[in-house]
Amino acid sequence: MSQIEITDVSVTFDQKNRTINAVQDVSLKIETGEVYGIVGLSGAGKSTLVRTINGLQKPTKGTVVVNGVDITKADKKALAASRKKIGFIFQNFNLINNRTIGQNIAFALTAGGYPEKKQPQKIVELLSMVGLQDRQDNYPAQLSGGQKQRVGIARALANDPDILLCDEATSALDLETAEEIITILKDINERLHITIVFITHQLEVAKDLFDRVAVMENGKIVEQTTAYNLFANP
Ligand code: ADP
Ligand code: ADP
């Protein structure tokens, strides 16, 4: 069984006078340790699809099985347990601006039930993984965009996830900084064997990262291939 199995998933949003088919009959399987890219134009449905993996978005139909648990049928407790093993990285970092970097990480640790006494050491460990161990007393405004995203990565790793969902994680960054973030993610994938699902509208940024890629258009997956094939010249 694959680590993530999305089967015949559709998500529709009912607006006043129309229905938006954000995701339409999508099926895909993602294996443990894989770096899986989902690319497509803005509005293609990438974010909605990826949010079904951690239960942030409930599918209108279909099933989403993560680590053997069908989260579309899971009760609150099972859903919370599944979500704890999934880190999420955002385009705009989503840091708490009036808390220090250390406090931002502590917040995630506490939310995941990590014992308070052991938090200081864990915070240093997490920030060391992204090269920011000497920044824990800084506030987010004192960091560059790339540094903020590195904090976002450290926070996403706080509860030892086995999956990282990255929603346009490099889209707010310049190309050089984006490449730094990709290098860090690749290293995390290789060293910690964490599965990465990375959605982006910036094809060029992620071609060195992906093992496989799905191309989304109008809520549907129109192509599934290796990154090599997607970028090979015809
Ligand atoms: P992408 O991530 O590829 O940019 P999204 O998944 O964000 O695409 O959006 C897919 C479609 O669903 C878009 O038409 C978007 O406007 C719509 N959509 C997304 N979320 C909602 C929502 N909560 N309510 C209504 N429409 C939504
Ligand atoms: P970038 O070149 O990535 O845009 P910046 O010019 O924003 O980066 O920042 C360069 C360096 O200065 C970074 O190491 C950042 O942490 C530091 N820095 C930026 N703004 C502040 C600030 N207000 N207080 C302290 N350090 C800062």
TrEMBL record:
<feature type="domain" description="ABC transporter">
    <location>
        <begin position="4"/>
        <end position="234"/>
    </location>
</feature>
<comment type="function">
    <text>Part of the ABC transporter FtsEX involved in cellular division. Has ATPase activity. Essential for cell division and viability.</text>
</comment>
<protein>
    <submittedName>
        <fullName>ABC transporter, ATP-binding protein</fullName>
    </submittedName>
</protein>
<keyword id="KW-1278">Translocase</keyword>
<comment type="similarity">
    <text>Belongs to the ABC transporter superfamily.</text>
</comment>
<keyword id="KW-0067">ATP-binding</keyword>
<keyword id="KW-0472">Membrane</keyword>
<keyword id="KW-0813">Transport</keyword>
<keyword id="KW-0547">Nucleotide-binding</keyword>
<dbReference type="GO" id="GO:0006865">
    <property type="term" value="P:amino acid transport"/>
</dbReference>
<dbReference type="GO" id="GO:0005886">
    <property type="term" value="C:plasma membrane"/>
</dbReference>
<keyword id="KW-0029">Amino-acid transport</keyword>
<dbReference type="GO" id="GO:0005524">
    <property type="term" value="F:ATP binding"/>
</dbReference>
<keyword id="KW-1003">Cell membrane</keyword>
<dbReference type="GO" id="GO:0016887">
    <property type="term" value="F:ATP hydrolysis activity"/>
</dbReference>
